[in-house]
């Protein structure tokens, strides 16, 4: 039967060509869209991780309760010892402490009195030459004028803020804030450069300085707001295991300043976003199956009209209606598999091109180089290899099943008359 | 006028009543009048408080103990005050805060920080920020001290606070720019000294409380020696303010109340 049906399909191309074409196109689209979504997901995770969440993040319990406000006064003390322990426990990971703070930036006049003032949001990271922060934050690309801080008490400010307050390169400004313990904190800084962050809130008034300067300003010796941890390659399951083990060992519910580790997935509502993407993908596949089934049903009907005579002969020579129906479904299965294989191959080719070459969207994102990567890429995963089978095979079979119902309406008594024998 | 008419009516009823009923009525009238006479005039009361609390000028040394979530921190401060509108403070310890100075002139506030060698004017919303991490804001510090200038007062009851008999006085702001729209103050009947204070926002929400734990007498004045300020919206045990020494009506060089003195 298998050989018979295959021969039939190969010899009569009209039976198979259009359905295979339709299925290949649909499957190709499914594979490309899936890989593109995976690429978008990976990019979202990566962007969130490098800028905000890390693959894991360590904060104190008190800080975690108000994490949206980033209260540095509730930050972690004893980060040197903690980093050493973490490095020993997880040598493959990179651990980066950061401080987030708020305050005023004051520009003095010639007499040393206030000329202008503006509210700022500060971010302090390790800007030393062997640190990964510059690479993670794309600081080199995000600098608009000037250069990265290289000396003590140098600062980067947002370009928009600099223009608004009339601050130029090498101007001396004073940052006014409060220390970790509530005292007044004031320190003079030299503006080494301006940066475009690509996020409205930050562009309105953010500053970046080296973490050692912030620790001095805020009386945070050996302390930080957060410690971000990065795996060589993000793995959701691994981050959850690491976080779970860390919390069992170090976190104490009765101590509000004991550390707690948060995996990426549990931060910034990413879990909700990722499950939404999964749902969207499921809906997308369902829609494809539905639409392709409609098209293939129509194609099946057309096929049924064309093969009216053949079915009549087969009924006349004694083949049962059920057997003919099943053979049609089997044919559609072969067509579905063939179309799926071809569609998957073409889809994967496009996906790999999009993965390695990508689409450069930098012209659309002139001012967002720090926050977002300027090249959008797809990501081919093992699932990309077989995700097309569901819509491809299913739609073909459903189309044949619906269109083949007409066989049961054939009246054998009328056969000879129809055949005009 | 209404009271006069009311009394006339009562008198007519009294005359027409039988003797026993007259007695009961008389007793009732006396009781009501004594109730009306029991609460003093609120505005007069706060005038007495101002008389007790405020002087032409003062020099004091004090300690501010901030009880934070991570532990307590003690700052030593020396202050010079002239009337309501001029004050100069210098932080003497701990080392990190030593040399920080604050100058208040009228409604303006400047802070000098030695580590940056800068004098910064604190204005706008910055005034609502906490002073050195305490439960007091700069706005609280800037507030005019004399109650009679800012509030109308009404006595609403009495209560025993720290074994002292106190009037409960409701203060309602009579100026537009008052830091707190209403305050509730418990004033020691004998010493004319507030022992407890509650400060409310425009919505009526309780924002801050002050409690006086210890008092001392200097000459004729009774003065708070140990106060606890509490920002109700913050977690923590509040800020303790202890006056170690205070002198009233002393000679203070005018030059102290100038911006130049911040840098000296």
What does the secondary structure layout of this molecule look like, with pairings?
The complex is a heterodimer of chains A (421) and B (264).
Chain A: H1 2-11, H2 13-53, E1 56-60, H3 61-65, E2 76-77, H4 79-89, E3 94-108, E4 114-125, H5 133-136, H6 139-142, E5 143-146, E6 154-158, H7 159-165, E7 172-178, E8 184-195, H8 200-205, E9 206-210, H9 211-217, E10 223-224, E11 226-230, H10 236-250, E12 259-263, H11 270-306, H12 308-316, H13 321-356, E13 359-360, E14 375-376, H14 389-403, H15 415-419
Parallel strand pairs in A: 4-9, 6-8
Antiparallel strand pairs in A: 1-11, 1-12, 2-10, 3-4, 3-7, 3-11, 5-8, 6-9, 7-8, 13-14
Helix pairs in contact in A: 2-11, 2-13, 2-14, 11-14, 13-14
Chain B: H1 2-16, H2 19-38, H3 42-53, E1 57-68, E2 71-82, E3 86-93, E4 101-105, E5 108-113, E6 118-122, H4 138-142, H5 147-150, E7 151-161, E8 164-173, E9 182-188, E10 194-200, E11 206-218, E12 221-231, E13 238-248
What would your notes on this structure say?
Chain A is an alpha+beta fold and 421 residues long. Chain A has two domains: 2-48 and 271-419, no CATH class; 56-230, no CATH class. Helix content of chain A is 50%, strand content 20%. Chain A is built from 15 helices and 14 strands. Chain A has a six-stranded mixed barrel with strand order 3-4-9-6-8-7. In chain A, strands 2-10 form a two-stranded antiparallel sheet. In chain A, β7 and β8 (184-195) form a beta hairpin. In chain A, α2 (13-53) packs across α13, α2 packs antiparallel against α14 and α13 (321-356) packs antiparallel against α14 (389-403). The longest helix of chain A is centred in the first third of the chain and has 41 residues, at 13-53. Chain B has helices spanning 2-16, 19-38, 42-53, 138-142, 147-150; strands at residues 57-68, 71-82, 86-93, 101-105, 108-113, 118-122, 151-161, 164-173, 182-188, 194-200, 206-218, 221-231, 238-248. In chain B, strands 6-5-4-3-2-1-13-12-11-10-9-8-7 form a 13-stranded antiparallel β-sheet. With 264 residues, chain B is α+β, with helices and mostly antiparallel strands. Chain B has five helices and 13 strands. Chain B folds into two domains: 2-38, no CATH class; 44-262, Lipoprotein localisation LolA/LolB/LppX (outer membrane lipoprotein receptor (LolB), chain A), CATH 2.50.20. Residues 1-5 of chain B have low confidence and may be disordered. Chain A binds chain B through residues 62, 73-74, 104, 106, 108, 112-114, 174, 176, 178-184, 186-188, 219, 256-257, and chain B through 66, 68-70, 73, 96-97, 100, 111, 113, 115-121, 126, 129-130, 132-134.
């Amino acid at each position: 039967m298998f050989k018979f049906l295959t021969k039939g399909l190969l010899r009569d191309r009209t039976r198979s060509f259009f359905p295979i074409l339709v299925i290949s196109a649909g499957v190709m689209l499914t594979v490309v869209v899936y890989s593109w979504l995976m690429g978008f997901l990976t990019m979202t995770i990566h962007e969130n991780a490098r800028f905000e969440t890390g693959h894991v993040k360590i904060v104190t319990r008190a800080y975690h309760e108000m994490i949206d406000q980033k209260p540095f006064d509730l930050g972690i003390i004893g980060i040197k010892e903690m980093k050493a322990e973490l490095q020993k426990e997880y040598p493959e990971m990179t651990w980066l402490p950061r401080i987030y703070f708020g305050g005023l930036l004051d520009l003095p006049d010639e007499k040393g009195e206030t000329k202008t003032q503006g509210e700022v949001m500060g971010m302090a990271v390790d800007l030393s030459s062997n640190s990964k922060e510059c690479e993670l934050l794309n600081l080199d690309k995000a600098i608009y004028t000037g250069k990265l801080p290289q000396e003590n008490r140098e600062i980067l400010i947002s370009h928009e803020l600099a223009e608004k307050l009339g601050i130029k390169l090498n101007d001396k400004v004073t940052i006014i804030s409060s220390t970790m313990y509530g005292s007044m904190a004031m320190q003079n800084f030299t503006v080494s450069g301006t940066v475009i962050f690509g996020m409205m809130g930050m562009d309105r008034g953010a500053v970046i300085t080296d973490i050692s300067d912030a620790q001095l300003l805020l009386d945070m010796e050996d302390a930080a707001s957060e410690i971000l941890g990065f795996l060589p390659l993000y793995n959701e399951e691994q981050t959850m295991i690491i976080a779970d083990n860390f919390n069992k060992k170090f976190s104490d519910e009765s101590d509000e300043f004991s550390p707690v580790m948060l995996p990426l997935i549990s931060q910034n509502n990413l879990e909700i976003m990722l499950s939404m993407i999964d749902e969207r993908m499921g809906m997308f596949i369902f829609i494809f199956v539905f639409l392709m089934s409609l098209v293939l049903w129509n194609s099946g009907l057309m096929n049924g009209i064309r093969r009216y005579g053949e079915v009549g002969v087969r009924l006349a020579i004694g083949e049962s209606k059920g057997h003919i129906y099943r053979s049609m479904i089997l044919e559609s299965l072969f067509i579905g598999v063939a179309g799926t294989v071809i569609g998957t191959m073409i889809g994967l080719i496009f996906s790999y091109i999009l993965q390695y070459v990508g689409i450069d969207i930098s012209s659309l994102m002139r001012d967002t180089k720090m926050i977002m990567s300027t090249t959008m890429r797809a990501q081919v995963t093992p699932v990309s290899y077989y995700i097309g089978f569901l819509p491809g095979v299913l739609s073909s079979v459903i189309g044949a099943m619906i269109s083949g119902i007409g066989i049961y309406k054939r009246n054998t008594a009328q056969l000879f008359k129809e055949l005009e024998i | 006028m209404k009271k006069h008419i009311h009394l006339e009516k009562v008198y007519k009823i009294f005359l027409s009543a039988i003797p026993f009923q007259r007695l009961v009525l008389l007793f009732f009238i006396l009781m009501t009048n004594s109730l009306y006479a029991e609460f003093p005039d609120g505005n007069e009361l706060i005038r007495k408080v101002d008389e007790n609390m405020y002087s032409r000028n003062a020099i004091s040394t004090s300690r501010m103990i901030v009880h934070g979530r991570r532990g307590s921190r003690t700052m030593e401060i020396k202050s010079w005050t002239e009337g309501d509108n001029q004050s100069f403070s210098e932080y003497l310890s701990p080392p990190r805060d030593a040399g920080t100075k604050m100058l208040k002139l009228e409604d303006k506030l400047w802070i000098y920080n030695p580590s940056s060698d800068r004098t910064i004017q604190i204005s706008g919303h910055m005034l609502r920020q906490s002073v050195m991490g305490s439960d007091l804001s700069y706005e609280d510090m800037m507030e005019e001290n004399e109650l009679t200038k800012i509030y109308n007062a009404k006595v609403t009851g009495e209560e025993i606070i720290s074994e002292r008999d106190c009037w409960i006085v409701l203060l309602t702001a009579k100026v537009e720019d008052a830091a707190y729209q209403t305050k509730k103050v418990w004033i020691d009947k004998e010493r004319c000294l507030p022992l407890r204070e509650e400060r409310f926002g425009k919505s009526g929400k309780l924002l801050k409380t002050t409690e006086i734990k210890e008092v001392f007498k200097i000459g004729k004045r009774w003065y708070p020696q140990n106060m606890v300020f509490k920002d109700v919206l913050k977690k923590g045990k509040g800020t303790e303010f202890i006056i170690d020494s205070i002198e009233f009506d002393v000679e203070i060089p005018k030059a102290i109340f100038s911006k130049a003195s911040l840098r000296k």
